[in-house]
Structure formats: structure tokens, C-alpha cells
């Protein structure tokens, strides 16, 4: 059958959970998708790369819980691709490793539709690696065997050859078998495997939620029952498990086991999230705000156009810098049109964002607040009759323009953007917070505090609060909460340092 030219389906491996292990190819295809159909074991943060216009469909499967049956998923893939859509089918791990990707590909072939396979890093190797367990090792084994503990329930009997598995001297890796670990272990022992064989179960491998349970073939089922250990998990059987004691690198990081909420905008969360995860934290991205254009774009554009007539251009945040230059380059093609205006920036992140546009920051206050800018201007000399343009958020404090005006400056405020409540929960952060709570919540502005509290989510007992600076802290306190950690330097590195101090890192 001739392939239809328009639609295409990418059967893509979403990796084992750590967002950093998702391939560049997957990120690229997600960013261009018309339709995304994803499974339960996919990290939902992948969806933040999707275009705003993409149709996102959950087709998850967990033990005894199916959002869509497999034949329904197959039909959906065929239907969406046949419509001429660019479809991305995200599957946890690799689509061809116990992922039923082969069955889905066959359905697309049967319908005469185009498809591509995008391999992903499988939990087969990733979960053991993050638990400090190499699946092969010259001193222990040169081979490993992979099998599933969750076979097709319609089969009359198991197709697993327990005798062959028991006789195999290499590492044995079982996927999807936590519920049947007792049966599998008993069968292996019955067919000759040693009851003393080391076993490890790794739950939510490669993520901040990772848990590892170690035992032997003889006692692992009892340990699972006693601890309430649940799926999803990878089971590793073999002498290599003993190496975990020396090689456990992931679970020994300083913030491992701490669940921390990041409330910044979806676009800005990355820097804070990445550093916290690097320290081992389980990060829940729960954006409470998003950035929108100003209500009066025409007025903003006119002020940007006339920047060359001002003596100073003041930026109070990286968002203001981005919004300003987005408008600037809609109006002008040449950076020199900015004229001889001097530039002031509050905070190193704002200054760094200015430098991304190959411009120099002429004034950067020591304190990263409006009062610091005023003090810095005073050091520069008399500001009387100087024309100053401040690019800022719609609801920013009026301390800076009012104080500079009182000093004799001619001040105009360019509303560059608005901060509005985030209404979407694409990555499932709100749901996770409701279900699991958190150890710490971070606030990077007063608006993140106010909009988080507006969600009226249950506040877990003992949850601590970390603030980026005194103005944000005041808002926290005004709402009856306690600030447990406050950045001494009012930026993301300063916030990280305060969190590290709080936990004695």
C-alpha cells in the first residue's frame, strides 16, 4: 500500500524519568508536534516543550488502570496520523523494549501511514546505573538477561523459562514485576537459583523519587510486603548488586529525599530546577505565574521606539529585558537605533540578559532592589532633568519611579509585561503537590507567593519556605507564613545557597 505523504507518527522513547536523559531528537519532535500521546511512565515535564497549539492526550497504563486500551491507542494513532497530523507517541524508556511499540508500528504499516522510531534510554540500564549497580562487570558477569514479570494475561501459561533463567550465570533484570516478585523468586529458587542471590528493586529510577530496596532472592518478597514497596520498579538480580554499597552515587547527594516546589514561570523554572536536581532534590515544578504582553502594546512600542531620546534605560528583571528587545526588534533592524542611552540593571541575572543582546550595563547596584538603583544613581551624581525610562512589570512597586522623580529626574514607565496567574498544569505539579506534599517551597517574587496561595492547596505540615529576598519575604509573612530561608544575595544562586544552609549542605 502506498504511504500517505502528509501525516507521520514518531514512536518515541521518553527515557527512564530524568529529563536530562531525554534525547535531543525527542525534544525536537515534541516541539514540532500537532498531537502528543503519552504514557504514565513518561516524565510529564517533557510536555512543556510542546507548542501551545498541540493536542495532548494521556494514554497511560498502570497495573489494573488503563486510560486507553491498547487497541484504542492503536486506533487513535492511525486516526490522527491519517488526518495529516505530526503525531508524537511518547513511551516510557524505549518504544521497542517491552513498550508495545512494535504492535503500534504494525498498525501504522497496515494503514499505509508513515512512521519513525526514536529510540530512548531504557530503565533496564538507567535504573541500575542510578542505584550504583553496573549490569555487567569484568569481575562478576559479562552478560545480562532481560525479562518481563508482567506477561500477557490472556496467555494460558507463562512462557518464561525459569530453568534457563536460573541456570543463567549473568545478571537478570526484570521489568514490571513488583506485584509478582514472590512468585518469580520462588520459581527461580525452585529451578536451582540460590536463595542468597543479591536482589535490588529500584522504584522511580533516575528521578528524585528514586527508592532502592535490597535483599536476596529468598527474602525480597517479604521485604516488599513489609515496606509497602510499590511499582513502578526495575528488579536486578545478581552479584553486581553488591557493588551498590561502593557505587551508590545518586542517592547520596546532599538534597536527596527532599521534595522541593519551584513556583517560577514555566519558562524561568529551568535554572533553579536544574541546580536543585543536581543537588539531589525531587523537584515539583508548579508554576504559579506566567508572563503576558502588556495590555497597551502600542504605548509600550512607542516608548521603545523613542528610547534614543532618553539618558538612561533601566531594567528591573530579565523578563523586562526580553520583552523590551522583542518589541525593539519588531520596530528596528539595527541595534544602533537604541542611540546613546545608558543602561542600568537590577541584579546579575538582569545584567546577564542585557549582555545577551551584546550591550553593556553601565550601572548595576550592589543591592538587587529598587532602593539599590536609587542609591547607585545618587553615587553617579545629580539626576535632575535626566530623562529615565524604566522597563518593568505592570504591577511593580512604585518606589523607583517615585523616588527618582522626587530627585528631579523626568521618569517614564514602560509596562513591558504582565504577570498573570498560571491556569494550566501541563506537567502535573499541582496534582503531585496535592497527593505527596513537599518539604520546601521556593518563592522568587511576591507574585509567586500570592498566586500560589490563591490556588488554595493544602499546606503540608512542616513544609518550609525559602524566599529570594526581603520584599518576597515580607509578602510571605503578610500572608501569615514563616520564612525559613532567605537569600542574602537576591538571585537564584543566592536562593540555592540559602537552601543549602537550611539543610546543612
Short recap of the structure:
Helices cover 32% and strands 22% of the residues. The protein is an alpha/beta fold and 505 residues long. A 5-stranded parallel beta sheet has the order 3-2-6-1-7, with helices on both faces. Strands 8-9-12-10-11 form a 5-stranded mixed beta sheet, with helices on both faces. A 5-stranded parallel beta sheet has the order 14-13-20-21-22, sandwiched between helices.
Characteristics of this structure?
single chain, 4 domains, five-stranded parallel sheet, Rossmann fold, Methyltransferase, Cobalt-precorrin-4 Transmethylase, Domain 2, 505 residues, Cobalt-precorrin-4 Transmethylase, domain 1, alpha/beta
Helix count equals 18
Tell me the CATH architecture of the largest domain: 3-Layer(aba) Sandwich
**Total individual domains:** 4
Mean pLDDT over all positions: 91
- Uncertain residue ranges: none
The strand count comes to 22
Main pleated-sheet profile: 5 strands, parallel
Please list the strands of the largest sheet in the order they lie side by side: 3-2-6-1-7
CATH topology of the largest domain: Rossmann fold
How far apart the termini lie comes to: 62 Å
What CATH first level of the largest domain would be assigned?
A: Alpha Beta
* Strand fraction: 15-25%
SS class: alpha/beta
Rounded to an integer in angstroms, the radius of gyration calculated over CA atoms is 28 Å
Shape: elongated
Helix content: 25-40%
Amino acid at each position: 500500500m502506498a504511504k500517505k505523504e502528509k501525516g507521520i507518527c514518531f514512536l518515541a522513547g521518553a527515557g527512564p524519568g530524568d529529563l536530562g536523559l531525554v534525547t535531543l531528537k525527542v525534544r525536537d519532535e515534541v516541539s514540532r508536534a500537532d498531537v502528543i500521546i503519552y504514557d504514565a511512565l513518561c516524565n510529564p515535564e517533557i510536555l512543556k516543550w510542546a507548542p501551545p497549539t498541540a493536542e495532548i492526550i494521556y494514554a497511560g497504563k498502570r497495573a489494573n488502570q488503563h486510560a486507553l486500551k491498547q487497541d484504542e491507542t492503536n486506533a487513535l494513532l492511525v486516526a490522527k496520523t491519517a488526518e495529516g497530523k505530526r503525531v508524537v507517541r511518547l513511551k516510557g524508556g524505549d518504544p521497542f523494549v517491552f513498550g508495545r511499540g512494535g504492535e503500534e508500528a504494525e498498525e501504522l504499516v497496515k494503514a499505509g501511514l508513515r512512521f519513525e522510531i526514536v529510540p530512548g534510554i531504557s530503565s533496564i540500564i538507567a535504573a541500575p546505573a542510578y542505584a550504583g549497580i553496573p549490569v555487567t562487570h569484568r569481575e562478576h558477569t559479562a552478560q545480562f538477561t532481560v525479562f518481563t514479570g508482567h506477561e500477557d494475561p490472556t496467555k494460558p501459561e507463562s512462557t518464561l523459562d525459569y530453568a534457563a533463567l536460573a541456570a543463567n550465570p549473568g545478571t537478570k533484570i526484570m521489568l514490571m514485576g513488583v506485584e509478582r516478585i514472590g512468585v518469580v523468586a520462588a520459581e527461580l529458587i525452585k529451578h536451582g537459583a540460590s536463595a542468597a542471590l543479591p536482589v535490588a528493586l529500584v522504584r522511580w529510577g533516575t528521578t528524585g523519587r528514586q527508592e532502592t530496596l535490597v535483599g536476596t532472592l529468598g527474602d525480597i518478597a517479604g521485604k516488599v510486603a513489609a515496606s509497602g514497596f510499590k511499582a513502578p520498579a526495575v528488579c536486578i538480580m545478581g552479584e553486581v548488586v553488591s557493588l551498590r554499597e561502593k557505587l551508590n552515587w545518586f542517592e547520596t547527594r546532599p538534597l536527596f529525599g527532599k521534595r522541593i516546589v519551584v513556583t517560577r514561570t514555566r519558562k524561568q523554572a529551568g535554572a533553579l530546577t536544574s541546580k536543585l536536581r543536581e543537588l539531589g532534590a525531587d523537584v515539583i515544578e508548579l508554576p504559579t505565574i506566567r508572563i503576558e504582553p502588556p495590555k497597551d502594546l502600542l504605548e509600550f512600542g512607542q516608548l521603545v521606539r523613542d528610547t534614543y531620546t532618553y539618558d538612561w534605560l533601566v531594567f528591573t528583571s530579565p523578563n523586562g529585558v526580553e520583552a523590551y528587545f522583542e518589541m525593539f526588534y519588531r520596530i528596528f533592524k539595527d541595534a544602533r537605533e537604541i542611540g546613546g542611552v545608558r543602561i542600568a540593571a537590577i541584579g546579575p541575572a538582569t545584567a546577564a540578559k542585557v549582555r545577551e543582546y551584546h550591550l553593556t550595563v553601565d550601572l548595576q547596584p550592589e543591592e538587587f532592589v529598587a532602593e539599590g538603583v536609587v542609591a547607585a544613581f545618587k553615587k553617579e551624581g545629580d539626576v535632575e532633568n535626566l530623562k529615565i525610562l524604566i522597563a518593568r512589570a505592570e504591577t511593580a512597586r512604585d518606589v523607583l519611579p517615585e523616588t527618582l522623580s522626587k530627585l528631579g529626574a523626568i521618569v517614564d514607565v514602560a509596562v513591558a509585561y504582565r504577570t498573570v496567574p498560571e491556569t494550566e498544569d501541563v506537567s502535573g505539579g499541582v496534582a503531585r503537590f496535592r497527593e505527596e506534599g513537599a518539604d520546601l517551597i521556593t518563592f522568587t517574587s511576591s507574585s509567586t507567593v500570592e498566586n500560589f496561595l490563591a490556588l488554595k492547596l493544602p499546606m503540608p505540615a512542616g513544609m518550609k519556605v525559602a524566599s529570594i529576598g526581603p520584599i518576597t519575604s515580607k509578602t510571605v509573612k503578610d500572608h501569615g507564613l514563616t520564612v525559613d530561608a532567605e537569600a542574602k544575595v537576591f538571585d537564584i544562586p543566592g536562593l540555592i545557597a540559602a537552601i543549602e544552609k537550611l539543610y546543612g549542605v
